[in-house]
């Protein structure tokens, strides 16, 4: 049977890809940010997942504003990255797990989540950069990856509670998969930031730290926040943190916190890393 061994959260800042490609990880501006991934990388090395399900939001590489699904699941054998305007060489393609993806799609629809099923899907920095931060760069990636895209760009966007419920449905779907598969859920995005308008550059460190604590230990606190509440406090792009709730919903209520790290600002963003072990006693 499939087993959810844990969950990780990560910001998916575009500039991270540029830093990795240019080997800037130990430069003063970037060092503390990348050092925060050390314990998460070590946990992954010991946990040995077969598959990582990456919950992220597409930034126009796969979906444009004329067609934006609320939830979209990759159901392909392979996923390709492409240049988003940074001039960076796309990373190696990611191997998917189509049989698992189709099982998830069927189960999620049965649980009344109307998932868009994508048999071709390009993946942008929201998907790629967290994997690069956790695994480095590879010509052949050491883990299979399945994209689960959540709309946080074109309003109306789903609520934190709806994402939490999606996580619970995802957990139930994985538990019914008959193949022995070790799975990690990677919730990406956030934390507080806004990239435009009069409040551009807003970062609320206190709110970010409280979110990290509450999502880990009391997710109902975050689920009770409206989208308006989140964007008022954390900025318009701070709404991305709802995707952490998909990860949290898929795990046990008593999943153990292994690691927390927060750094701000990095590229005008509050950046958090959280590791939850779903098997720890």
TrEMBL record:
Keywords: Dioxygenase, Oxidoreductase. Residues 8-273 form the Extradiol ring-cleavage dioxygenase class III enzyme subunit B domain. InterPro entries: Xdiol_dOase_suB. GO terms for molecular function: ferrous iron binding; oxidoreductase activity, acting on single donors with incorporation of molecular oxygen, incorporation of two atoms of oxygen. Pfam families: LigB. Gene3D superfamilies: LigB-like. This is Protocatechuate 3,4-dioxygenase. The lineage of its organism: Bacteria, Pseudomonadati, Pseudomonadota, Gammaproteobacteria, Alteromonadales.
């Amino acid at each position: 049977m499939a087993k959810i061994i844990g969950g990780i959260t990560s910001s998916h800042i575009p500039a991270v890809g540029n830093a990795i490609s240019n080997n800037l990880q130990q430069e003063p501006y970037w060092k503390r940010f990348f050092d925060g991934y050390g314990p998460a990388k070590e946990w992954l090395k010991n946990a040995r997942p077969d598959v990582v399900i990456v919950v992220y939001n597409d930034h126009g590489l796969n979906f444009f504003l004329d067609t934006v699904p609320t939830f979209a699941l990759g159901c392909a054998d392979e996923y390709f990255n492409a240049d988003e305007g940074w001039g960076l060489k796309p990373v190696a393609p990611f191997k998917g797990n189509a049989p698992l993806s189709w099982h998830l799609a069927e189960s999620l629809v049965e649980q009344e989540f109307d998932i868009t099923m994508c048999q071709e899907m390009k993946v942008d920095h929201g998907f790629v950069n967290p994997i690069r931060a956790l695994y480095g760069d590879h010509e052949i990636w050491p883990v299979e990856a399945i994209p689960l895209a959540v709309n946080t760009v074109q309003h109306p966007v789903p609520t934190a509670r709806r994402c939490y419920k999606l996580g619970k449905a995802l957990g139930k779907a994985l538990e019914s998969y008959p193949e022995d598969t070790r799975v990690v859920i990677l919730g990406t995005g956030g934390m507080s930031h806004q990239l435009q308008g009069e409040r551009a550059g807003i970062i609320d460190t206190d709110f970010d730290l409280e979110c990290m604590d509450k999502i880990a230990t009391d997710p109902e606190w975050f689920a009770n926040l409206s989208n308006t509440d989140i964007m008022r406090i954390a900025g318009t792009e701070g709404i991305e943190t709802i995707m952490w709730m998909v990860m949290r919903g898929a795990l046990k209520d008593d999943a153990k916190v292994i690691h927390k790290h927060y750094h701000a600002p990095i590229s005008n963003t509050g950046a958090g890393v959280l590791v939850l072990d779903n098997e720890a006693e």
